[in-house]
Each structure stands twice: as C-alpha cells, then as structure tokens.
Amino acid sequence: MSNFDVLFIGSGQGAWNAAMPLSMSGQKVAIIERDKIAGVCTNYGCNPKIILDGPIKVMEDAQAYKGIGMTSEMKINWSELMAHKNKVLDALPVMLEENFKKAGIEVIKGEASFVNEKTVAVNGQEYTADKIVIASGQRPTPLDIPGKEYLKTSNEFLYLEDLPDHIVFVGAGYVSMELASIAVKVGATVHVIQSSDHILNEFHQPYAQKLLTKMQQDGIQFHFNEKLSKVEQQEEQLQITTEKGLTLTTQLVINATGRVPNVENLNLEAAGVEYNSKGIIVDEYLQTTQKGIYASGDILDKKQPRLTPTAVFEAKYLAASFLGAQTQAIEYPPIATIAFTVPRIAQIGVTIEEAEATGLTIKPIDLGKQWDFAGRNETEAHLNLVYNQEQKLVGATAYSQEALEIINSLTPIITLGLTSKEVDKLIYAFPSFETMIPRYLQETK
Length: 445
Hints:
alpha/beta; Enolase-like, domain 1; five-stranded antiparallel sheet; nucleotide-binding; FAD; FAD/NAD-binding_dom
C-alpha cells in the first residue's frame, strides 16, 4: 500500500494546477486518471473546439467584407483541419504526463474507488493519503431512449475524420450551438432539436435571439419544443423521431443535452462524501462532507460556471490552502463566460437580467455604429454595460465576433473595481477596443 500527502482523482485543470505546485514544494503527490491525461478541456473540450473554430472565424470575418473588397470564396478541408488539430493536441497529454513525472508526481492509470475516507483502490491496489482531491469532472448526459446506442456526443464530433453531410444536434446549449456553428460553415446540413423555445439559457436572451436569426440565415434549421423519442437505423442512415412525430433522416445524431457529474464509480458512500445530481457538495473551503477530502472543477455542486478558468482558480486555491499560504474561504472573482458561436456572445459580472431586477444602471452601446466595427462591416455588434450605485462598472455582455477580446479587456476593470478616472490612466495600443473604454465609462446612460 502506497501513502501520499495528497492524492488527486482526475488529471484535468482542477487537479494538476494544484498537484504541480504541491509536488514542487516537497509534498508526496499522486494523480489517478482513467482516461487521457489532462482531462476534458485538453482532449474533448475547449482545446480541440477552438482549433476547429479558428478557420470558421476567419471565414465569417472574410464574409463580412463580401461586396466591399473581398471577392474570393473560402472552403474548409475538414480532414486536413482534423489532422492538424490531432497533431497539435495529441502531444499535450504525453507532454503533461512527462512534466508530472519530472515534478515527482506519481501517475496511476485506472478507475478510482474509495475504500474508506483515507483509502482509494485502483486496479486492486490500495493507496492512502492524508488529503484526497476529487476532480473527476463531468460527462455528456446520456439519453435513455430507444436507439440510444446510435447517439454520439461532442467527444466523438471533435474527432470525426470526415464530416457527414447531414447532422442533427439534440439540445441548444453551449456545446450544441458551438459545434453546429462549425458544422454548417464546413458545409453540412444541420438541424437542431430543442425541448424549449429558445437557445443558450445562460446568456442574455435578446442577444441569443439575434444569434438564432443569424444561425438560421446560415442555414441551420431549428425545431423548438421538440423532444427526441427514438433513433432507428435505416440502412446506412439514421431516422430520428420526436415525441410530437417529427421525423428526420440523417447520418449523425449528436446528443448535447447537458452534462452530469462523474460520481457513480467512486463509491463515495464508503468515504462519507455527500453528492447530488449536480455534483459533490463542498463547503467554502472546497472540503466535502468528509474531513480531509476535497473537490474541485466541474464535479462540484456550485453556482459558478463550470469552466476551465474556474477549475484552475479552485486548484490554485487548494494548493495554497494545503501549503498554509491561504487560510480564508474561497472567494470567486467575476467569471467571464463565452459561447464560441458565429458571432460570439460573452459576459462577465452582473448580467443584464440581474441588473434589471435590482435597478442597476444599464448602458447599451451600439458597437455596430462605431467606426472600427463599421469598418469591419460588423453592423450587428452590440454591448451592454452595467453600473452600480457608485457608477463603477460591475457587469458587461457583448454580442460580436470580437466578444472574447471585448469581455477580456473589461474583466480587470470589473474585477479590480477600477473607477473611470483610474481607467483613464491606461494607455492602450491603438486602434483597439480598449482605447474606447475610457470614453464608454465616462458617458452615462
């Protein structure tokens, strides 16, 4: 039986960002991983998605210049793009595992299962630790319907060697909208089955409606208030049927109806760790209901967005806590979120809906009429800023191809609580969105 100071279950961002500094500080550390090293983000999420999305954004940016200077048509070779993505990302788990070992971290391959509050079994071997961190993440929600064996998830989509001509996405959240945006631009016929009457619940709905209109113009066909009831094999194709009787014949069905926590095989009951359908329950120190067992990343039952930066923040917090450098409860800063659709929607801090409910000041800015956005012919770009009673910026929501840069440029202002006078001391490279920030902050609604 091997004993460690800290044992991590999972090797994603919520684990290794704590494991590395702990090991380098002299702690005896191990990481247990049942799948690819580095977790979902690196292998089945953010990283592969953003590489595949890269040329999609280039195409959309170029399309905006059609009729005002751009004449050539762009096409994507999916197999070449996929090969490029694989070449870049396949090396990352190997590199990260080597870095783990160089830092003195023991890597244990296999499925972890608690024996008791101090012991975890993997492949029949038991490991004990003074502290255990559960960072086992989430996985796509399974659909229990006839023909469920024919359903694929975003995991498989991000590794398709060839893109089918016809794809049906089930769900209209982050994953579905991002992948649908990619697929239609590559040339596939895309349908979306959605149980409600709208898309992207997490975002400002007027912006989501603008995006919906744009996606429909791009050729994506939406079927709202429909629930998938079965999938049948018909020769070399699939036929999907909804509860209301809608039928579609397709080549690929992607189940993107949400994600569920990876808790089933951990035998958490043996360790006295409580959890629910949303994840593992922790206190303000990220400790579970069992002393000495902690959790971080997407596995948590939390109100904060389940994003890579959030998991990194939690991992760094745990490392600092274990090393005695942090004694306070975790305090989350404003967390920026973005849907990598075409265009993007991004937000941080107080949302428009929260501002409306609490009477905070909302300042709309028609970015499409600003000279730089007009110069790129991005006429639909828009931004909403939220101010508190002291007239400090506390929230922002953007709709634009450049929403990522817009929200990231506003993040330090919101997080640090900078006043317009303090922001006015910053000199940015010109031309850029940042150079307009002081003016936006000085103007009132």
